Amino acid sequence: MKLQSQLNAAFTALLLVIMTAAGLVIYSLVLDVLIQDEQRQLAETGELLINFLSEYDDASEYRNINDFLQDQDLQLFLYDRNLDTVLFSTMSISVVNEFFDENNFEDNEETLWQHGNDRFVTQRIIFSPEQSGLELILLTPINDLRAVQQNFFFRLAWVFLIGALAAVILSYFMTNKLVTPLSLLKKELKKVENRQFDQMKRIRASGEIKEVEQTVYDMAQTLEQYMKSQQTFFQNASHELKTPLMTIQGYAEGIRDGIFDEEDAEKGLDVMVTEVSRLKKIINEMILLAKLDSQPDVYEETEIDVQTFVDGILSKALPIVNENKLKLQQKVDGSITVYADEEKLLRAVTNVVFNAIRYAHEEVSIHVYKKKNYIFFDIEDDGKGVSEEDMDKIFHRFIKGKGGETGLGLAIARAIIEQSNGKIYAGKSKKLGGAKFTMCLPVPNKTKGNKKLKS
Q1: Letter string b/e over residues 160-175, b meaning 16 or more CB atoms within 10 A of that residue's CB
Q2: Residue 380 in contact with residue 431, Cβ under 8 Å?
Q3: Which stretches are transmembrane (predicted)?
Q4: Residues 6+ apart with CB under 8 A from 421
Q5: Is 275 helix (H, G, I), strand (E, B) or coil?
Q6: Per-residue pLDDT, 377
Q7: What is the pLDDT of residue 299?
């Protein structure tokens, strides 16, 4: 069953239940209201009869009101409470005795009397003074009231029926308005399944459905970008792996076939060892990236003293800094602590520092400081910097500048920093004139963990 049909069926069933319950309650209340109104009228009639009867001392005159009672379809008892006897009755002695047996005369709280299949609405009017013990008891059949009740309920049923029909028609249009965007969204999801991202269209909707539509659209864009990046990754990976493999294959076949003399063969072996090392480094970094993407939970967070952390990076970088005759400066503002996976964070920052050393002319700077609720690592150099066209893709895999190695170092750095709930971005250094890489991490919170930065 379709969703629209299910919603309509559920609404109709709920409407029927509510209307049935309301009808039963109203049906009962109508009878109660009619009985109360009838008792009020009986009380007014009884007062008139008492005034009439009070003018006569002779009990025989009581019979003169029979015609009036018959016209009004009323029954009357003149009851003496002190003697517990009926002085006058418009009903037979057997009926009076039956009412006595049911204790109706003594029970002042009972307003409905039963005689066989007939029921009567009763009202008691006391003669003045009350010490006389005389009561005028008027009875009227409840059948007339039931007829009025059924007539009212019949009309109410027609009103309910027309209202229910209008509500069902309105429900159809409302559910159709609700379900139509979902049906269209289903078609758009089918396009995502078939990878037809260029054919996707936006859907007009509101409320939560609009939020779902926006989420689906964002998901499709992210998926499209991911697939394109994966395609680019495999293309670049195949190119990066193919070049050293072809070099190794060429030298290996030449040595096997005796094409090279002894000196060239030695050089070929050195080239092969170099290319194998390069291949191994590329493969290891690809494996690391794959682990960072597929195993984000393998992250051992520890407390890191930033000054000691930076000193360790300088120790690693010192040989290549001295070799290139560069000046490496570092500054840590105050005592700063970071909570992160030390091994992974060391890899990320080292990759960025070595990248700066590779392109620097004379100087590289490392500056760590705290600002508001974040800790910043600024790494700057005085090289050529990053061009505007490369700024957006510098952190993509296998994107490398002149003199780069594998093209995976900055991609690994970004993956690690983002796994640490931080951000990394590139820009131009105002101080040194070259490239500036900024890594931003949230201030540690021991109880709640690091909060994730907004893009």
Answers
A1: beeeeeeeeeebeeeb
A2: yes
A3: 12-35, 152-174
A4: 441, 442, 450, 451, 452, 453
A5: helix
A6: 92
A7: 66
Strands (DSSP E) along 326-446, which ranges?
327-332, 337-340, 363-371, 374-381, 423-428, 435-442
Comparing CA positions, the residue from 315, 334, 346 lying closest to residue 439 is 346
Given this model, what pLDDT does residue 285 score? 67
> Is the distance from CB of 350 to CB of 416 less than 8 angstroms?
no
CB count in 10 Å sphere of residue 384: 14
121 alpha carbon, distance to own chain's centre: 58
- In the DSSP assignment, the letter for residue 452 is P
32: tokens are 């109660």
Two structure tokens written together for 146: 């039931």
DSSP string, 400-423: --TT-SSS-HHHHHHHHHHHTT-E
Amino acid at 4: Q
Q: Decide: helix, strand or coil at residue 345.
A: helix
Distances (CA, A) of 237 to 232, 309, 389, 397, 404: 8, 33, 22, 9, 15
- DSSP-derived letter for residue 393 is T
> Minimal CA–CA distance to 289: which of 354, 379, 351?
351
CATH architecture of the domain covering 3-149? 2-Layer Sandwich (3.30)
Q: Are 379 and 434 in contact (CB under 8 A)?
A: no
Give me the pLDDT at residue 449, please.
47
Fold of 302-442: Heat Shock Protein 90 (3.30.565)
Report which residue type is found at 331. K
Rounded CA separation 414/409 (Å): 9
Q: In angstroms, how far apart are the furthest CA atoms of the chain?
A: 158
3-state SS, 10-26, equals: HHHHHHHHHHHHHHHHH
Residue 445, token pair as written in the block: 């919170």
The full DSSP string for 43-106 is HHHHHHHHHHHTT---GGGGGGGHHHHHHTT-EEEEEETTTTEEEEESS-HHHHHHHHHTTTTT
Contacts of 316 (CB under 8 A, 6+ apart): 350
CATH fold of 207-294 reads Helix Hairpins (1.10.287)
Q: Where are the domains of the chain?
A: 3-149, 207-294, 302-442
pLDDT for 451: 46
Listed as ranges, residues in the chain with pLDDT below 50 are 447-449, 451-455
The residue assigned the tokens 């000691």 is: 308
